[in-house]
Write a structure and sequence with these properties.
alpha+beta, six-stranded mixed β-sheet, 19 strands, 469 residues, globular
């Protein structure tokens, strides 16, 4: 590809850098070891362009670069060091020389490394690839765990007995067929079962989603969701520990109803009327249960999706680290299990638009809850939703987390966070403006939000963006 000045100007207009496009000034020179690192990271992210001679902050003026005057020589050095060819071009832009490195994507099932370091981008930084991400790359090309058969050699009657086909058709809003063959044909068309010479093979996706009893399929039985209820705010005493019995799709409503039945109730007074409300709104529970079920890593054995109910919070967790960084859950979306996500969308359980976490954050604001906390641990991802808490009872971390999520939510909606909007999020009147300003300052210092420089230094007009905007 021959890069033109017009193409460079088009890249400069992008609202933000992406995993496939990186700008650096490099006016006089650029560290060659850092260049190698970027080649590795961008290749691991699907390939892209590394551009020298352009400022990395909007409006991204062309500043020109004298780095790497011999483009042929640097291309040879890159190939010798990283093991793949990178095209290097010097583009004479009207405002100065720009050096463009066109980096190819890594081969499927392969992750590139340099001196043993597998690199990827995280915001403006280069970081080591997580164990979970590396595993997912190395597993590319292998059969999808969900597509593998769970049971073989079944008769048509055994298939119909094992799967809750009537509920499945109801969820799809289709009339239930009057004969077994039509039921089996639909399951085959959905790629949930397969007709073979020795009978029918039931795929794991089918067992996970529409089994009458997941325990009838031993290789997926451990994937049944588990609900644990504790006394108080710790794990010291367990009141209830129950494992789900049916497939995710056909028993989803029952699972939500069961979890809601375990949640503590709070007394609230609105307009002089006292009423009881659950610790966490049902819509948030629904979104996070669906999210945990769909985005789990099925290849991790010996663990399952868990929903843990405490007196002051609910924790939703699933096996596997996220494919999207936790601090980008609000604006980012990538499905780990596409076929499962598609099926759950078509039966009305999720939208597959990446808006579920947005709704959860929005509900937390509407119900005056502390901001949800997104955690990653050893091969596990958790979302914690807390019960109601006044601003005065929130600690510093609660307030910073709420401020960042509010700014991110506003950005996704095409708006900006201001002192007023954050006051409204915390349900505070104008007399608390100084308190809210302190929260914003602390969040800026934490590197999670930044002032919008386009409005200048006016405190009255000040508005804020999440760090990635």
């Amino acid at each position: 590809m021959t890069v033109t000045p017009a193409q460079i100007d088009l890249w400069r207009k992008a609202t933000s850098e992406s995993p496939n496009l990186e700008f650096k000034e490099g006016k006089n020179s650029f560290d060659i070891d850092k260049l190698y690192d970027y080649c590795i990271a961008l290749a691991n992210e699907g390939g892209g362009y590394f551009v020298l001679g352009v400022a990395d902050k909007p409006p991204r003026p062309v500043v020109g670069s004298a780095a790497f005057p011999n483009t042929v020589a640097i291309a040879e050095k890159i190939f010798t060091k990283v093991g793949f060819h990178v095209e290097v071009e010097a583009v004479e832009h009207p405002d100065g020389r720009v050096v463009v490195f066109t980096i190819p994507p890594r081969p499927r099932g392969t992750a590139y490394h340099i001196d043993g370091r597998y690199l990827m981008r995280s915001g403006a930084s280069l970081v080591a690839m997580s164990e979970d991400r590396l595993r997912s790359i190395f597993d590319e090309g292998k059969p999808d765990w969900l597509e593998e058969p769970s049971k073989l050699g079944m008769t048509g009657q055994e298939v119909v007995d094992a799967l809750d086909t009537q509920t499945f058709f109801e969820l799809l809003k289709l009339p239930f067929p009057s004969n077994q063959e039509a039921i089996l044909d639909k399951l085959i068309a959905e790629r949930l079962i397969e007709r073979r010479s020795d009978g029918f093979a039931v795929r794991r996706l089918s067992a996970i989603t529409i089994a009458r009893r997941i325990s009838d399929f031993p290789d997926v039985a451990r994937k049944a969701p588990r609900v644990i209820v504790y006394e108080g705010n710790s794990k010291l005493k367990t009141k209830l520990d129950q494992t789900g019995t049916g497939g995710y799709a056909v028993r989803f409503k029952d699972l939500i109803r069961f979890i809601m039945g375990q949640l503590p109730q709070n007394e609230v007074v609105e307009d002089a009327i006292r009423r009881s409300v659950k610790l966490v709104p049902e819509e948030a529970v629904r979104e996070l249960v669906a999210n945990a079920l769909i985005h789990q890593d099925f290849t991790i054995g010996g663990t399952s999706v868990m929903f843990e109910v405490y007196a002051d919070r609910v924790e939703f967790s699933n096996p596997g680290l996220p494919v999207v960084p936790a601090d980008r859950f609000i604006d980012g979306y990538q499905s780990r299990n596409e076929r499962l996500a598609d099926l759950m969308r078509r039966v009305g359980i999720c939208e597959e638009k990446g808006s579920g976490i947005d709704r959860v954050v929005s509900l937390a604001e509407a119900y005056q809850l502390p901001a949800p906390e997104f955690r990653t641990g050893h091969q596990r991802t958790s979302v914690v939703v807390f019960g109601p808490r006044d601003f005065e009872d929130m600690d510093r971390n609660d307030r910073i987390r709420a401020c960042y999520q509010h700014a991110a939510l506003k950005r996704v909606m095409g708006e900006y966070m201001t002192n007023q909007s954050l006051r409204e999020r915390f349900k505070l009147d104008e007399s608390k403006s100084a308190n809210v300003s302190q929260v914003i300052t602390a969040t800026v210092e934490a590197g999670l939000v930044k002032p919008d420089e386009r409005v200048g230094s006016s405190r009255k007009l000040a508005r804020y963006l999440p760090f990635w905007a």
